Automatic annotation (TrEMBL):
Keywords: ATP-binding, Cytoplasm, Ligase, Nucleotide-binding, tRNA processing. Transmembrane segments: none annotated. Residues 21-205 form the tRNA(Ile)-lysidine/2-thiocytidine synthase N-terminal domain. It is found in: Cytoplasm. The N-terminal region contains the highly conserved SGGXDS motif, predicted to be a P-loop motif involved in ATP binding. One of its GO terms (molecular function) is tRNA(Ile)-lysidine synthase activity. Ligates lysine onto the cytidine present at position 34 of the AUA codon-specific tRNA(Ile) that contains the anticodon CAU, in an ATP-dependent manner. Cytidine is converted to lysidine, thus changing the amino acid specificity of the tRNA from methionine to isoleucine. This is tRNA(Ile)-lysidine synthase. SUPFAM superfamilies: Adenine nucleotide alpha hydrolases-like. One of its GO terms (biological process) is tRNA modification. ATP binds at residues 25-30. Its EC number is 6.3.4.19. The lineage of its organism: Bacteria, Pseudomonadati, Pseudomonadota, Alphaproteobacteria, Hyphomicrobiales. Belongs to the tRNA(Ile)-lysidine synthase family.
Length: 457
């Protein structure tokens, strides 16, 4: 049963040691979140740092006034509040996605500026039901074996550094509005939530129509079942990666040939998809059907194929994955903290001066020593050729240096691997494979999840 009264015990499962940012739009759900959270913290941990943040996207005439209303409410309740304005360029297509991207970026910046490691949003059971029903309409279920039907995760790691928790996912919007009415607190209605030109408002209206409670309940139950399946699949994929994968050189992953015949085909396909996306630097997992076909062919080595910008080279010595050399980024100025080729984070630290980042290239890779563990040297060199290196701009001689030698200026630690499909958003469902792949490729450790009972495994 979904809660008709907000279930406050969910707040007790969250670790507030490093404070919290409450993302408050001024709508009913996030305003109720703020009041419930403040109440919980006042009772259990009054010294907790709490900051309410409103993003003014500047997309509607009333947005600044809505932010001011949240600021007033916060002032009345003794809650610190900041309004951040999205001042960047607004794209003409994909506006909702760009606004969401900017919103999370600004929320994360506000949290980090205060040393806070957690953001809370007011997503509700109604939002969850809408998400799941939209995905079902789009056929996610059949294509993804329920992966997408898990809906929104109770927690998502943003940018591999800050957790976003959604404590109200089990609570109905109506219950939250009752809380506000009882407290005599108003809220803003966002007209885009009613605009049936968009898919979500259409589904929202359909849910509000009739049998509302049962349909929402069914959709949330479906999401809960799919979430359990997805987590279990992730644990099995992680176990396969731990058992069969190694990294003999930067940018090169070796799978023991037994991987393809280990017996748990769905887990092997999932592991393969995550590894392919990671090696290729893709934000999305490759197509499931194509990955299944690839796994099939891995059983009959030798062969070589490319999927998700990753060369899969199956030999007697093992199955080797490396970034294809096609379409690597050309030499460009290195920007601290930027993502290079979707798979490496640039960490310049104190290094100053104009630096270029470029692939090492085949000519320079050919001169390097190779692994001594029996890995074919040609594969090590091919992988290293696609690895990024930094140069002083004035000293870089281009992709093929010729007889004159140039040399990279920084240790390789200045360019850090990332688990590409989860680098931006890591839903807590996928913690196990993400943590395992991070350990495999030497990506930074995952920060501890905010809910008790979760481990990165
Ligand atoms: N402009 C914003 N400023 C701060 N947080 C926001 C903003 N827009 C959305 N959020 C956060 O994301 C959550 C989900 O966003 P969504 O757009 O579904 O909600 P909403 O309809 O704008 O507002 P609410 O959830 O408060 O009713 C919100 O509950 C809130 O925590």
């Amino acid at each position: 049963m979904l809660e008709t009264e907000p279930d406050l015990s969910v707040f007790s499962q969250i670790d507030f040691t490093n404070g919290a940012v409450a993302a408050v739009s001024g709508g009913s759900d996030s305003t109720a979140l703020l009041l419930l959270l403040k109440d919980h913290l006042d009772r259990t941990a009054p010294a907790t740092k709490l900051l309410a943040v409103t993003i003014d996207h500047g997309l509607r005439p009333g947005s600044a006034a809505e932010a001011q209303a949240v600021a007033r409410l916060c002032a009345e309740r003794g809650i610190a509040h900041r309004t951040l304005v999205w001042s960047g360029r607004k794209p003409s297509t994909g506006l909702p996605a760009a606004a969401r991207e900017a919103r999370y970026r600004l929320l994360a910046e506000a949290a980090q500026a205060e040393g806070i490691g957690l953001i809370l949003t007011g997503h509700t059971a109604d939002d969850q039901a809408e998400t799941v029903l939209m995905r079902r309409v789009r056929g996610y279920g059949a294509r993804e074996e329920g992966r997408g039907l898990a809906g929104m995760a109770p927690a998502t790691l943003y940018d591999w550094r800050i957790w976003i928790a959604r404590p109200l996912l089990g609570t109905r919007r109506a219950a939250l509005r009752d809380v506000l009415r009882r407290a005599n607190v108003g809220w803003a209605e966002d007209p885009t939530n009613e605009d049936e030109a968009f898919e979500r408002p259409r589904i929202r209206a359909a849910l509000a129509d009739s049998n509302n409670a049962q349909r929402v309940e069914d959709a949330v139950a479906l999401a809960a079942r799919a979430a359990v399946e997805r987590e279990q699949l992730g644990h099995r994929a992680a176990a396969l990666i731990r058992g069969f994968a190694s990294s003999p050189a930067d940018g090169l992953i070796r799978l023991d040939p037994g991987f393809a015949t280990a017996g748990d085909e769905p887990a092997a396909v999932y592991a393969l998809r995550i590894l392919l996306a990671t090696v290729g630097g893709a934000a999305f997992l490759p197509d499931k059907a194509r990955s299944e076909a690839l796994l099939d062919r891995l059983r009959a080595a030798p062969f070589c194929a490319t999927l998700s910008r990753t060369v899969v080279d199956a030999r007697r010595a093992g199955i080797f994955l490396r970034r294809e050399t096609r379409n690597l980024p050309p030499a460009a100025p290195a920007v601290d903290n930027a993502l290079w080729d979707g798979r490496r984070r640039i960490k310049l630290g104190d290094e100053s001066g104009a630096l270029l980042i470029a692939p090492l290239g085949a000519a320079r890779a050919a001169k390097l020593a190779t692994a001594e563990d029996g890995t074919p040297p040609s594969l090590v060199r091919a992988a290293l050729a696609a690895e990024p290196v930094l140069w002083r701009a004035s000293e870089y001689l281009g992709e093929c240096p010729g007889p004159a030698q140039d040399s990279p200026v920084l240790p390789r630690t200045a360019v850090c691997p990332v688990v590409a499909p989860f680098a931006r958003f890591l839903p807590s469902f996928d913690l196990a494979p993400a943590g395992t792949v991070a350990a495999l490729i030497g990506a930074p450790l995952l920060p501890a999840p905010p809910f008790s009972g979760h481990t990165a495994g």
